[in-house]
Amino acid sequence: MPELPEVEVCRLGISGHIIGEKVSKVIVRNNKLRWPVPDEVKSLVGYKVLAVDRRSKYLLIRFDSGTLLLHLGMSGTIRVICEDTPVAKHDHFDLVFANKKVLRLNDPRRFGAVLWFADHVDERGLLTKLGPEPLSDEFYPGYLFAKAKNRKVPIKTFLMNNQIVVGVGNIYANETLFQAGILPTVLAGDINEERLNKLTEVIKLVLTAAIAQGGTTLKDFTQVDGRPGYFAQSLLVYGRAGQKCLKCKTKLEEIRQSNRSSVFCPKCQS
After folding, report:
1. Looking at 11, 57, 101, 104, which residue is catalytic?
2. Total domain count for the chain?
3. Residue 224 maps to a domain
4. Of 240, 230, 146, 125, nearest in space to 191 by CA
5. What is the predicted pLDDT for the residue at 74?
6. Is 35 among the domain residues?
7. Catalytic site residue 254?
């Protein structure tokens, strides 16, 4: 699944192509995504894109009349292409612009979403319960410690709870816990404030680096212009179970937590 850095890279990639452009046509080839695509999206014809924002892993395309929400799901991709580009399998949704460019959503598994928030009102409540953005000032030293107090859940599970903080998915939870020296199985409420503050700092650094380097290369994700991300070259533990730790040469171990892979170094993490 594309994680926060990949979605942010996508936002940056499409913004320059569509901000200020007028929608000339809306094409829905498959209405049955994670939720049915609402008919209201067709009312966008004639409106200009004012901004492209991101909240957690949701892309938010702003118009005068409301907000178009796009979600990539497990395997979705978004491209900005020429209007005459042939339609491929799983190309479910197009925003066609007056400049002959098309914003196209391809989603083989159909876990993605295209939704419309009239007057920018999130009636579904998809965004209202989300925790702070990890790169914002709302994610500050002391925040995790306050939230973790008396919590009897593993720290990795805690980090991946979007009501605590958004965007720390499986890959980056593995990476940040390794760099902070914390085992993924330690209970969140048992970690002292100093270590959680260090974890906060590491999360910011790792996500910032991932965005700068173009997002993690996954088989189901490439950048908006078709180039793969490059941060996968820098992953220290994720996908490296059984290999030597790059810091201490100890064999990396792997366990399952909430049906997700957790890879860690038994020596560097405690």
Report:
1. 57
2. 2
3. yes
4. 146
5. 86
6. yes
7. no
38-42, Cβ contacts within 8 angstroms, sequence gap of 24 or more = 38/115, 38/116, 40/66, 40/116, 40/118, 41/68, 41/114, 41/116
Residue tagged 């892979």 (tokens): 261
3 catalytic residue (yes or no)? yes
One-letter amino acid of 114: V
Tokens of 73: 């799901």
Q: List per-block mean pLDDT (blocks of 10 residues) for the chain, which spans 270 residues.
A: 86 93 97 94 96 97 97 89 93 96 94 95 92 98 97 97 95 97 98 98 95 65 60 82 98 96 98
With residues binned 3-state (H G I as helix, E B as strand, rest as coil), the percentages for the chain, rounded to 5, are 25, 25, 50
Domain that holds residue 22: 4-118
The residue type at 128: T
178 sits in which H/E element: helix 170-180
- Confirm whether 57 is a catalytic residue: yes
For residues 140 and 89, is the Cβ–Cβ distance under 8 A?
Answer: no
Give the global pTM: 0.90
Catalytic residue among 3, 6, 8, 175: 3
Strands 66-71 and 113-118: antiparallel
C-alpha–C-alpha distance, residues 169 and 192, integer Å? 23
Known catalytic membership, residue 109 = no
